[in-house]
What does this fold into?
Amino acid sequence: MTGSLSIRPNFIGGVRVAATGGTRNISPSDLSDVIGTYAEGDAAQVEAAVTAARAAFPTWSLSTPQQRFNILDKAGNEILAREEELGRLLSREEGKTLPEGRGEVARAGMIFKYMAGEALRNPGDVLPSVRPGIKVEVTREPVGVIGIVTPWNFPIAIPAWKIAPALAYGNTVVFKPAELVPASAWELVDILHRAGLPGGVLNLVMGAGRIVGQAILDHRDVDAVSFTGSVAVGRSAIATVAGRGAKMQAEMGGKNPFVVLDDADLEVAVEAVVNGSFYSTGQRCTASSRIIVTENIHDRFVAAAKARLAHVRVGHALNADTDIGPVVDRRQFEQDLRYIELARAEGGILETGGEVIERDTDGFFLQPALFSGTDNSMRINREEVFGPIASVIRVKDYEEALAVAVDTDFGLSSGIATTSLKHAEHFKRHARAGMVMVNVPTAGVDYHVPFGGIRGSSYGPREQGAYAREFYTNVKTAYTA
It folds into this structure.
């Protein structure tokens, strides 16, 4: 299959704008499958996009909540109606299985419909002053021009959960998607424009992060930036944006623990680990990569996990019998292989997987790797791999398990498998993470609740749900006599 030879353009000021060059979008399931060629923008196009967003802001920021509701709800309806088509496109370009691709599209549609309602639910307060005869009003207003920079692992859901609240609260947007997955982003922006979004409110500039992304971070007229990506780039982005006094929100990954206690339901624990660690090819910032298992269940858990992984099928993302798709590209594939060799060199025991797999098509297929015999000081347990690789750490009891779980520079998601209410409640309170899961995978969160972590995982207010207003609005206090 080969995509169109024409270059899909950027969207700036409500019109499609061509770029001088383009980037081919290639499926990791089949390197001969060119999905399309997408515009490669530059700093000048970022300048034009910011100018357009700034010009559109006064009118859009004063638009009625009903107008914003109608547009976002209409976009959500179209996304849901095109779940199969968009899910297939997403799975082709990113490599997650077709059920996962369809599920992500459905999530994006529901995000837009939820945030449409939030446009009507932007709360405020009227308070009595401590001074007689004075009324105090507390309201929320849009921030201004929002720069949005998104990663490749959720090509439509992460753009949705950033763009939808930005628009719902009256902001305008300059959006740069990841270079590896422009197709889903392009379709999303096209849907929003056809839903009635005025020109300049949402601008799409595709291209290299070091050029387009950096230009957004640096621009003095970008009032806030929401970023999801790697730790290194995120920390640099925080320094740049916060350094010029703009608002910053960053999600930067995790090294998420999943604790399995002696009293756990073994089947529940294994399913939670296999799903949380390996599905979506392990390419989720919420994936559980450190499996902390108490000693009395350790051997049974490892044997059961190996047996379960033996039935996991790795293959082309669109094949009906595929459980886990390919790694997203060659660079990530080679990084995964390096970490497998590093874990071996550190003394880890490769219980199963880790082999490069050949399929009918030329793609980046890797058998999920499970290590045992590791400890929390090893690099495999300190650094985010972002692939289908997990390691087991044996501990004596719950107290040691908790100590190991919190011994990390990250703090996004944390999980536990146990039938003990006492341990479940204690873990929820003492796990140092923004999200805690009991007897469910660490990966997978609802669209209407807050998402985010602490320490090296996140910076700034939470994403998603009603909590999104903390980033996408400014609070104003007004006094009237």
